[in-house]
Write a structure and sequence with these properties.
The chain has a two-stranded antiparallel ribbon. It is 45% helix and 7% strand. It has a domain of 62 residues. It is mainly alpha-helical. The termini are far apart. The C terminus is likely disordered. It is built from 4 helices and 2 strands, in the order ααααββ. Helix 3 packs antiparallel against helix 4.
């Protein structure tokens, strides 16, 4: 499961979910969706933990942080337009 591990590390590095939130979401995932990163990403989207866009970027290995409004919750979007700020982080 190296691909799944890599995806989970990207989620943590992004700051979108902390370790506790991610562990809880993975435990709630159906067992058959835990074996492929795409299936796990789909579960996180359906559970409201990630947006489809965030999941796609994380699957591509892009793990810079996204912060929506004052929280990092997908649900913090208001109306038809999302309030957000981008925070890029670099690892040296």
């Amino acid at each position: 499961m190296p691909a799944v591990d890599s995806f989970l590390k990207s989620v943590l590095r992004s700051g979108l979910l902390d370790s506790e939130q991610l562990q809880s979401a993975v435990r709630a995932a159906p067992p058959d969706s835990r074996s492929a990163p795409e299936s796990l990403a789909d579960h996180l989207v359906k559970a409201g933990k990630l947006s489809r866009y965030q999941a796609l970027k994380l699957l591509q290995g892009q793990c810079w942080g996204w912060y929506w409004g004052l929280s990092n919750s997908v649900a913090s979007r208001q109306g038809g337009m999302a309030r957000f700020t981008w925070r890029a982080t670099a690892e040296i």
